[in-house]
Specification:
Number of strands: 16
Helix content: 25-40%
Number of helices: 13
Number of domains: 2
CATH superfamily of the largest domain: Dihydrodipicolinate Reductase, domain 2
Strand content: 15-25%
Strand order of the largest sheet: 14-13-12-11-7-10-9-8-15-16
Order of helices and strands: EHEHEHEHEHEHEHHHEEEHEEEEHHEEH
Largest sheet: 10 strands, mixed
Oligomer: single chain
């Protein structure tokens, strides 16, 4: 339990658009919460968060560039980690070692080993970790899980998950240049290889394996896979993974493909995943649906899940899209609309800090969902080969190249 006044002191690490959105939400939707720090390695970022937080709490949070300042302050109860993905594991582990609780955005880790270390750090330090997979706080997601568990959908035959984001544009690699004023490039790179500053790395980090698992895969499909797993009762890792795809729109020099098709062997049924970036006819659940009792147009919903049972077909949507079950002749057998659960998820994190109860999106489930995305990328990167997965250890079997790719190197001073 917290102290007598039950105040929770937070710090933001990574003050981009999503980070600012999350920290403001936590301040606005919960009581007796204070934000003491806004931390970013780029001194030019974070001004908007500081300004808005100042208005909300009557004083300005301190703006710092080194997250160690935050970890060393014993007043800070928890941190919100919204850095580029290559920093998620290390920042989370450091925070746990400093006795802090953590809210970490997806994809929570980029390797199987990182995931194990995060789980271990949370357990060893008794830290609460809430993963930024907010669907787990949605009433509609819980209802979908209960409906499937009741047997009303029948035996699950196959599951199809989609993250078909609209559009992409040609990418031109900019030349290396001097580091912009106010940016600590060494800290931005962190555990990644030391390389000269390049704006194409800095501003388009989700196009590089060194910093990301890809915008459509680890940035978005991680949400879809996590929601599908939750609805299915949280199965563990698949026994095998296969991923095909490539750069099909622009044959530029990006590491990350713009089209990936994945098959996960879950034993009783397969899960397929389509992740892509092309066209303007696919769209995420629109705002007018996210906060209403409406349902998306399922046919071109970019992030839908189709769960096929022997008694019906469930369409399940992210972002508050809700779900509908259809039978013969498209008769609606059951349905539940949803509301975008960001606020509920943030409240649940603060409540978990105070009560020490397990949050809705615990690190153990976040790591499994992240690992499925990471395994798909390993299959693709190792030559589009099938990966076997050891059910006891979660280790890759039968593919030495993929196992080697998962063994990322970390720079001195930034090691796990």
């Amino acid at each position: 339990m917290k102290g007598a006044n039950n105040k929770v002191v937070l710090a933001l690490i990574g003050a981009g658009g999503r980070g600012t959105q999350v920290i403001l939400g936590m301040k606005q939707c919960t009581e007796n919460v204070e934000v003491k720090y806004v931390c970013d390695v780029d001194s030019e970022r974070g001004g908007s968060a500081v300004q808005e937080l100042s208005a909300l709490q009557g004083f300005a949070p301190e703006k710092v560039t080194d997250m160690r300042r935050v970890f060393d302050d014993r007043d800070v109860d928890a941190v919100v980690v919204t850095t580029p993905e290559h920093w998620h594991a290390l920042a989370t582990i450091r925070a746990c070692e400093a006795g802090k609780d953590v809210y970490v955005e997806k994809n929570v880790c980029l390797t199987l080993e990182e995931g194990k270390r995060m789980i271990d750090a949370a357990a060893r330090n008794k830290s609460i970790i809430q993963c930024g997979t907010q669907n787990r706080s949605g009433d509609y997601a819980l209802a979908a899980r209960d409906y499937i568990a009741s047997g009303e959908l029948g035996a699950i035959v196959t599951v199809k998950a989609y993250c078909m984001l609209p559009g992409t544009r040609e990418w031109i690699l900019k030349p290396d240049s001097s580091v912009p004023d106010g940016l600590d490039w060494d800290q931005w790179l962190g555990p990644a290889e030391k390389v000269p500053y390049n704006v194409s790395r800095h501003k388009a980090w989700s196009d590089w394996w060194a910093y990301s698992g890809g915008a459509s895969m680890s940035g978005d499909a991680s949400h879809v896979i996590d929601l599908a797993r939750m609805a299915l009762g949280d199965p563990g890792l698949p026994s095998a993974v296969y991923c095909a795809g490539g750069r099909v729109i622009f044959n530029d020099r990006r590491d990350i493909p713009d089209n990936q098709t994945v098959v996960f062997d879950m034993g009783a049924y397969p899960i397929t995943l389509e992740a892509s970036q092309y066209g303007d006819y696919m769209a995420k659940t629109p705002q007018e649906v996210r906060f209403s009792d409406q349902f998306p147009e399922w046919r071109n919903n970019a992030t839908r899940i189709e769960i096929y049972g022997t008694k019906g077909l469930m369409f399940l949507g992210r972002h508050g899209g809700g779900w509908q079950v259809f039978g013969k002749d498209m008769a609606v057998l059951a349905e539940k609309p949803g509301y975008f659960p960001d606020e509920l998820h943030q409240r649940n994190f603060i409540e978990s800090i105070r009560t020490r109860k397990t949050p809705n999106a615990p690190i153990e489930q976040g790591v499994i969902s992240a690992s499925m995305i990471n395994l798909a990328n390993l299959s693709y990167r190792s030559g589009k080969k099938v990966l076997g997965i050891d059910p006891e250890t979660g280790a890759v079997t039968g593919n030495e190249e993929a196992a080697a790719l998962d063994n990322r190197s970390y720079r001195e001073g930034y090691r796990l």
